[in-house]
């Protein structure tokens, strides 16, 4: 079993829909990261959180430490949100990141 | 501030050769981490350097090595290349403040290595 599991693996939605991507982890963590990777490879860090909820524009990330679960939500989705979204956790004591396999999101106009 | 830069962006090598990739972190960042991304294994941590010292290492063979210079620039080297080393190699930097272990990482554009 991987330390970090994401679901779904692929998600296709219509423009304007509310999107939810889930991440579960099995180890103790110091922080959870949500990353966005566009075609071509560049990775952008969207959120780093260790508790509660963070919001940036149309993106919201939540984490439940007790349940070892995090969600990334996108409101009013847009075709430019099409990308691979990757969940990663950093372990206590060091900043080594362990990654989920990613969720490929496609937003259709 | 300029972002993280990586050179070269694309590279083609043959089996048995060695390769050196370079990463220049954001000015003022002291920590540089390297990652390998392949279709089969996804993103995997290679190693992290902080103040010229390797601080963490992933589960990769000794053919993968790295170093960091006094200006925080980092290089990684892969010797005796294998076909399976074909991948996107990403580096990421962060401030590395010792009292703030949880920091956002800033990724470079990556070097795409193809081994023939």
In short:
The complex is a heterodimer of chains A (109) and B (116). Chain A is mainly beta and 109 residues long. Chain A contains no helices and eleven strands.
Report on the structure:
The complex is a heterodimer of chains A (109) and B (116). Chain A is 0% helix and 61% strand. By secondary structure, chain A is an all-beta fold. The termini of chain A are far apart. The relative contact order of chain A is 0.34. Chain B is mostly beta strands and 116 residues long. Chain B contains no helices and 11 strands. In chain B, the strands form 2 sheets. In chain B, strands 2, 4, 5, 6, 9, 10 and 11 form a 7-stranded mixed beta sheet that branches. Chain B has a 4-stranded antiparallel beta sheet with strand order 1-3-8-7, with no helix packed on it. In chain B, β4 and β5 form a beta hairpin. Chain B is globular, with a radius of gyration of 14 Å. The mean pLDDT of chain B is 92. Chains A and B meet through β4, β5, β9 and β10 of A and β4, β5, β9 and β10 of B.
Mean pLDDT of chain B: 92
Structural class of chain A: mainly beta
Describe the biggest sheet of chain A? Answer: 6 strands, mixed
| Cα end-to-end separation of chain A | 36 Å
Compute the separation of the termini of chain B in Å.
37 Å
Strand content of chain A: over 45%
- One letter per element, helices H and strands E, the order of chain A comes to EEEEEEEEEEE
What best-fitting shape of chain B do the alpha-carbon axes yield?
Answer: globular
Number of helices of chain A: 0
Strand tally of chain B: 11
Give me the strand/helix succession of chain B. EEEEEEEEEEE
How many helices of chain B in DSSP terms?
0
DSSP strand content of chain B: over 45%
In which range does the helix fraction of chain B lie? under 10%
Q: Give the tally of β-strands of chain A.
A: 11
């Amino acid at each position: 079993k991987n330390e970090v599991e994401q679901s779904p693996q692929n998600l296709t939605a219509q423009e304007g829909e509310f999107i939810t991507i889930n991440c579960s982890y099995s180890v103790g963590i110091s922080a959870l990261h949500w990353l966005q990777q566009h075609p071509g490879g560049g990775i952008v860090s969207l959120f780093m959180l260790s508790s509660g909820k963070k919001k940036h524009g149309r993106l919201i990330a939540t984490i439940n430490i007790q349940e070892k679960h995090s969600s990334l939500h996108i409101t009013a989705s847009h075709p430019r949100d099409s990308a691979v979204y990757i969940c990663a956790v950093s372990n206590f004591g060091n900043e080594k990141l362990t990654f989920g396999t990613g969720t490929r999101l496609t937003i259709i106009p | 501030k300029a972002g993280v830069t990586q050179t070269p962006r694309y590279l083609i090598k043959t089996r048995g050769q060695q390769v050196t990739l370079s990463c220049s972190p954001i000015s003022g960042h002291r920590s540089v981490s390297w990652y390998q991304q392949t279709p089969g294994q996804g993103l995997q941590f290679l190693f992290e350097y902080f103040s010229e010292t390797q601080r963490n290492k992933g589960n990769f063979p000794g053919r993968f090595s790295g170093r960091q210079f006094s200006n925080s620039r980092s290089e990684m080297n892969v010797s005796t290349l294998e076909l399976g080393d074909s991948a996107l190699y990403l580096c990421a930097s962060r401030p590395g403040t010792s009292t703030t272990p949880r920091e956002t990482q800033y990724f470079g554009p990556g070097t795409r290595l193809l081994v023939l």
